[in-house]
Design goal:
The chain is α/β, with parallel strands linked by helices and 489 residues long. Helices cover 41% and strands 15% of the residues. It binds zinc ion.
Length: 489
């Protein structure tokens, strides 16, 4: 922590420069107060470094809530921060890159003093802009000081070919020129987002989508602290930590990024999708938005969570899908939401007391998957639906095989070969499954493998998984129509 003002002042409360009270401490509101408080300013990279070291010393981890990067991304990121590097994250879509970048603000001080009203968040102890230097000269110790929270010290921009130097760095303000200011005077500039992030973090997403001209401007700012605006060289010694993200294929393809700019990003960190199913599940549960479902609790059987995550894993391993753009974790989260919603409709329509998704709800994931899977050979919509169905079958089979062996379910199979049948659907009440359980020999025992017989809805879900697994092992026939499935021998 930085030394804070520890003196107390009384009697200034109605004055414009009155000290602000924060947690019992008084924050300096003028340069004089700031100097007396013993405050020392430091460059952003030193601030990030110092706060990270303090966290490490306390045994705290950075980026709480980011799952699956403990052994890969996080150690590399820590080293980059400790080294004061500008960082580029390379990864396919939906790998939490933006989230990691935004979380870096947590490593900034809670608040820093700035010259009040300065667009560049100037340090009151060492202002860089001409206006602040003039005000400092005029006002001296009474130069007004404001405090900026860490969230206000972060800016981000999605790179597109439309992003201009004016957006990122600045442009000449014709009104100020008309007021009679000299054109090369820095006070004629309307600052863009990067100077406004002075003393903070600036993130640019999809870096390769910037035009070459803008890349050159960015490089000049990072390297020389000089920029050319409309032919005028403007000195802009901003203190900004740059963080970028890019798709690896775009970043490495020749000509997409000018080499000197690439060189300015000292650390290149490769992100990845969760490597373990458990991590994909942890993210999907963590990200599930809390919706008001009235009195109804949501209980999702483990095997359903596994199927949703496994479906994404199957998609990421599928050569019919363009893997260079990737399959986002967002698909997993959206699919999880879809099946819970389908189960919720059932619970509400049938007046059940809990929401328990099951196999007959899985059809609901088509709508939340199709738009997120980029096919290698763009085809008709029918092909996309076929692909989703195939991937879903693989996922169900994998989860079934992890629990049962078909050879141990002979009694159950025999019931169907002998002419038995059963029809289930996403609107069948769970109690109906209790009837079936009694009527189909071997089903009850099979259900017990994966769920303790506790709730009729869990039994319904487990029964459906067993029937689906046997069907995928070609032991049963199945006719499917939406959420209605009829199984025959
Ligand atoms: Zn200033």
């Amino acid at each position: 922590m930085l030394p804070r003002a520890c003196f107390r002042q009384r009697g200034f409360l109605c004055c414009a420069l009155s000290p602000r009270y924060s947690g019992g401490m008084v924050q300096p509101r003028t340069l004089g107060e700031l100097e007396r408080s013993g405050y020392r300013s430091r460059p952003v990279r030193d601030e990030l470094r110092g706060n990270l070291l303090a966290r490490i010393a306390r045994g705290e981890r950075i980026l709480p809530g980011i799952v699956g990067f403990d052994d890969t991304v996080i150690p590399e990121l820590e080293n980059a921060i400790l080294s004061g590097h500008h960082i580029v994250f390379l990864g396919e879509r939906g790998q939490a890159k933006s989230r990691i970048i935004r979380a870096l603000t947590e490593l900034l001080d809670a608040e820093i003093p700035v010259v009040e009203g300065c667009a560049l968040n100037d340090d009151p102890l060492a202002p860089i802009c001409r206006e602040c230097r003039r005000r400092l000269h005029e006002l001296g110790a009474s130069l007004p000081v404001a405090w900026h929270a860490r969230e206000a010290r972060y800016g981000e921009k999605l790179a597109t070919p439309d992003v201009s130097i004016a957006d990122l760095i600045g442009e000449i303000d014709p009104i100020k020129v008309a007021e009679g200011r000299y054109l090369a005077d820095e006070e004629t500039i309307h600052y863009g987002i990067i100077p406004r992030c002075n003393r903070g973090i600036f993130a640019i997403n999809e870096l390769p989508d910037l035009t070459e001209k803008v890349q050159v401007g960015l490089f000049n700012l990072m390297e020389e602290k000089d920029v050319q605006i409309k032919g005028y060289k403007i000195r802009l010694p901003v203190d900004v930590v740059f963080v970028a993200s890019a798709n690896p294929e775009d970043y490495t393809s020749r000509g997409r990024i000018i080499t000197p700019l690439k060189d300015r990003f000292d650390a290149q960190i490769r992100t990845h999708y969760p490597r373990k199913l458990a991590d994909e599940i942890a993210i999907m549960e963590q990200e599930l938005p809390a919706l008001d479902r009235g009195e109804l609790p949501v209980h999702v059987p483990e095997f359903i969570k596994e199927i949703v995550a496994q479906f994404t894993f199957e998609a990421r391993a599928c050569n019919e899908i363009n893997q260079s753009s990737g399959v986002s974790v967002r698909m997993t989260i959206n699919n999880y939401e879809s099946i819970i919603s389908n189960a919720e409709k059932r619970a509400v329509r049938l007046g059940e007391s809990e929401i328990v998704p099951r196999i007959s709800d899985l059809h609901a994931i088509a709508a939340s998957s199709i738009g997120k899977l980029e096919l290698e050979y763009a085809g008709e919509e029918r092909k996309e639906i076929e692909l989703v169905t195939r991937l879903l079958h693989r996922a169900v089979l994998a989860v079934f095989d992890a629990r049962w062996q078909v050879e141990n379910l002979e009694e159950l199979c025999a019931y169907f070969t002998d002419g038995g049948g059963v029809e289930v659907s996403d609107m069948t009440p769970a109690v109906d499954y209790m009837e079936a359980i009694r009527g189909i020999p071997g089903l009850r025992e099979a259900v017990q493998v994966c769920t303790p017989i506790e709730s009729p809805r869990f039994i319904a879900a487990a029964s459906e998984l067993i029937l689906a697994g046997l069907h995928l092992h070609q032991k049963l026939n199945c006719n499917t129509e939406g959420g209605r499935l009829s199984y025959r021998g």
